[in-house]
UniProtKB/TrEMBL annotation:
This is Chromo domain-containing protein. Component of the NuA4 histone acetyltransferase complex. It is found in: Nucleus. It comes from the Eukaryota. It holds the Pfam family Chromo. GO terms for cellular component: nucleus. Keywords: Nucleus. PROSITE patterns: CHROMO_1 (PS00598), CHROMO_2 (PS50013).
Length: 50
C-alpha cells in the first residue's frame, strides 16, 4: 500500500481569476476534456513546465 501521487500535465491555462485574494488558474489537463478543467492556485502549478 502507499499513497498514489498523480501528476497531471497541463495542456493549457484557460482563464485566470482572483478568488478570496488568491490567484487561481483554470487548467485544462492534457488528455482530459475541457469540461474537466479545474481551478488551481499557483502553488499547485509550481512543478509545471514553463
Amino acid at each position: 500500500t502507499g499513497d498514489a501521487h498523480h501528476e497531471y500535465e497541463v495542456e493549457q491555462i484557460v482563464k485566470k481569476r482572483t478568488h478570496y485574494g488568491v490567484i487561481q488558474y483554470l487548467v485544462k489537463w492534457k488528455g482530459y476534456p475541457v469540461e474537466q478543467a479545474t481551478w488551481e492556485p499557483r502553488s499547485s502549478l509550481d512543478n509545471a513546465a514553463d
